[in-house]
TrEMBL record:
Start-end of Basic and acidic residues biased regions: 139-151
Any single biological process term in GO: cell division
Stretch list, region Disordered: 139-162
Keywords: Cell cycle, Cell division, Membrane, Transmembrane, Transmembrane helix
Name this polypeptide is given: Cell division protein FtsB
Lineage start: Bacteria, Bacillati, Actinomycetota, Actinomycetes, Propionibacteriales
InterPro entries per record: FtsL/DivIC (IPR007060)
UniProt KW Transmembrane keyword: yes
The organism of origin for this protein: Microlunatus flavus
Chain segments annotated as transmembrane: 21-43
Amino acid sequence: MAASGAAVLHRAVRANLTARALALVVVVLVLVISYATSLRIYFAQAHEIATTKAEIAQSQASIADLQSQITRWNDPAYVSAQARERLGWLVPGETGYTVVGADGKPLGGGLTLDSTPTDDPGQPQAMWWDRMWGSVKAADKPAVKKADPGKRAPVTPDSKPR
């Protein structure tokens, strides 16, 4: 009977150990799940912070570039250089030259003007006030609405064709 008492005691200890192990596994599993959620949120926030810092750095670089452009445009020498390059302007007393190629078009950069008329050459261009008055006249005459097929009288054997 001593052997069977020891076996019962061994089973009770083993069952108690299994219950403890199961409880420990459940506690560890709950901790892992709660920490995993917290870690996921932490990494998402860290990514958002890094993205925001990159946007801030890009905005600061853009601001620095715009401030340097403002500084350049406040310099009269830069403004005159841009007027010469872009618009072909000259300082009073200078003589300007344009090099023309064999095809009759100017060589190099600079401003080119398109003198082709956009409207019919035989028709005089309308002045802005004429165009504006035309829009007022058009607003007074709304477009005619088409009849709604759903509002027609139903077709019956008595109805006559139109």
